[in-house]
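Schema walkthrough. Field components (list of strings):
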Amino acid sequence: MSAPAPGLGDILFTLPADARLVPVRELSPRLQARIGPVDPGQVVVSRPGFRVTTRLVTPELARLMAEFRAPRRLVDAVLRFSRDEARDPFATLDDAFGALATLIDGRVLVPADSPEAQGLPPSLAAGQALAGYEVEALVQALEDSEVYRALSARGQPVALKVARAGARSALAHEARVLAHLGGGDTPRLIEAGEAGGRPFLAMAWRPGVSVAFAAQRMRASGDRPRARRMVAALLAAYGRLHAKGVIHGDIHPGNILIDEAGRVTLLDFGRARLDAAEGADPARAGIAHFYEPEMARALLVGQTPPASTARSEQYALASLGYFLLTGLHPVDPSAEHRELLARIVTRPPLPFTARGVAAWPGVERVLATALSKDPAERFPDVGAFAAAFAAAPPARPWPRAPLAAANLLEAALERVLRGWQVETSVDALPLAWLALRAALGRGDGDLLAAADLWASRAGPGWTAAAVRAEVARARCDSAAETEAITAFMAAADRADGPAPLLAAARLLDGGAYREADAAPLAGWAVRRLDRLRAADPAPATLAQATLALSQAGVAPLPDGLCAQLDALPRAAGDVWLWGLAHGAFAEPRYAERALEAARRTRDGLARLRAYQLTGDRRSYAAARRGAYAAARRAPAADDPGILETALLLLELVAPQRVIRPPFELWIGRPLVPPTAPPACP
Amino acid sequence: MGGRLDALSLRAIRTTAALPCSDARTLSRRLYAYGAVPRGPTFDLDFGPGDDALAVLGLTSGGGVRARLARDYDATTYPGWVGFGRLGQNDSASSAFKLYASPRPEALATAFPILAQVFADLEVRAFKVGRGPAGLLRCDKIVAYFDSREHLRVVAAALARKLAGCPAQGVPFTAALGADGLLSWGIDPPPPAEGPAQSWRSWITGKLADAILAVRRPDLDPAGPVLARMTADGVVDWRPAASRPGP
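Field assembly_structure (string):
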């Protein structure tokens, strides 16, 4: 990033009219969860239509930025801010100079007399003509250009891309690239020129939706073969692009369309390169999630980014392929830009199972090669990557359970479903949990209603309240979920130890999708964590609670936590602790300790957690053997162990989704016996 | 009585009657929501939060379904629903008959384009689809409105042909149109002299909740007595008994 050049001190800068400064605490729970555990006083800066759409800044910097709501010189803004905040203006300027330079580079602060200062309204209206094309509708507005659907003089639909007045435009370059490519996987160039002083290019209209939307439809249908064909077609298209000597330079889902027939269209060649020579590219940009490690590393150390190459695009394509197949990025993203870059540089891609997605070992191996941190370890070219991807074997389903195991599970579920015939049971809580897990695994409304019924009978303790909250969430009943969470906090206040914190973390996890207001529970959990810290608990206990709440997005990871984890004795901690540690830091040594812990236990769910974390099939096989052996012993229907075995058999079907029952968090204590049921569920 | 929807309705009555609750409104809400597919991490990941799920239906920008419907319908979003009204139709005209289509969530990406095409081709005057995760998980996620039972019958027959084999969820307390539970119908009760109008399902689940509270005993299967009370209230096969026979 370049600093403001000398002489900029006289320029009046302003925040554009459409720029928004929103404290993290005022974001929706969904967005807060997406950002992760940061100081809630931090502020999100965003501009609609900008490629780099959001960034986090400190509250102090946000207040300084607010000075630019009116046009001001940099020094005047700093002086006003320093006066209002009783700060030394020279120290403020020193502290803020780099950040202000970044904001100017990123066009978040813009010259007051520039068109950008007015926001991004469309410059052409429907029906208006430009260069003989009749505008129908705005498709996309970006900071430097607009794309319209339009009609040619002969009534043919076209995509009309027009540079914004005064913007530096890459349209002439894009036109050269499109002319060179001549259609096929890219829109055919019809015409390029200038109208009213604004460069434009007209391309053949290509129907379709963003590849991200197309992939979402396929995932929602469970249609993995089709999703795989789509990614294969996408890779093949890029292989052809590179074979024609073109590097796209801006790979992300918004630049790729898929039509109803599965045909791929690659868009936006403003950053494309016809010269594939290596070197630096000061103008390189894009969506950070798809940066390759070479670029992320350069940005982290303040170097000019390397130019995009076929190998760097291979990484971006593999990252995109992973995203399309799973709905998630190969490394856990961070909203903080530098942290995201660091993760791209250092963290290996997560196995699908660690993202809650069913394993696909053949495809994952191919993607992992293309996602190698060292470019030399990737495929020699995208064509080879595409061929390997197309040849990867399909995912194999797990073998069917033997008859005894299948019968045991179905008998347990039959008992669950017959809940309406009995008044209550000492097993109400495990039955509720089994019903809920079965309902989620099978997408079954009857089992969900049974979970609701059993949970309503499960008594007043915090474990029962936690299960009721999870059942309510599955029922999309945010009022009942809020009520159960309130009951959970009241009951857990009377309980000691870290277990309620772990349950709270589970209730808070997945906040991006929650309708109920979880803020009270988040506050409760943070206070409870402070209380736990003050009680000086065992280091492993405190670490587990801290990691769980961090994963849930309500508590930042404290400095030195890695050192505390590393100092734990070799046999300390269970697979759940080391799983959390691996999730937070992506350190292979924590995954190894999780596997070690799984080998020390006979707990089938813990073994499945080890599989989920690492994709280690031996852990899965060990859990399966244990479950089948327990089923073969043919316990009596009223044997308490039958529910435990049934739950394990159920989780074996989708081990990537395994979680620990709340009542297992209640370490060393009996389950709360059902007493008076709550008034109304 | 028989068939998949009837069995589903009986399970809903039995399970809801067993809840330790004596509040009619709570029981009515549970009955109304019965049959929803549970929301879990897999659904959240695949369908996405909020209106992200519109992509699954093909209703996002560039989507084929959106382009098809835009030719004939105005779209309106409101809490819980995306509504479509046929261009040029009188919104105030009564639409007494309701057709429920209940594909399972994983079938929506395939089934909704077919439903939209049939609704457009056969000039259905209005229909709505559930919005957001809760809207697509509920059993009555797609509702079409008709002025005549003949029109409803024609559209249902076309859908039954084109959606044969589609995994169905099923809408309890509605009258089945076929054995698989995918399609069913209902008639909203006449608007009361005072107070807000009720839909068929909210009306009948209210009646059922009252019946449950009136008849339930610990040693009694509530289904029979509850159904008997419904028959006495003029409901047969989950539709009004004789006043307006169905398709």
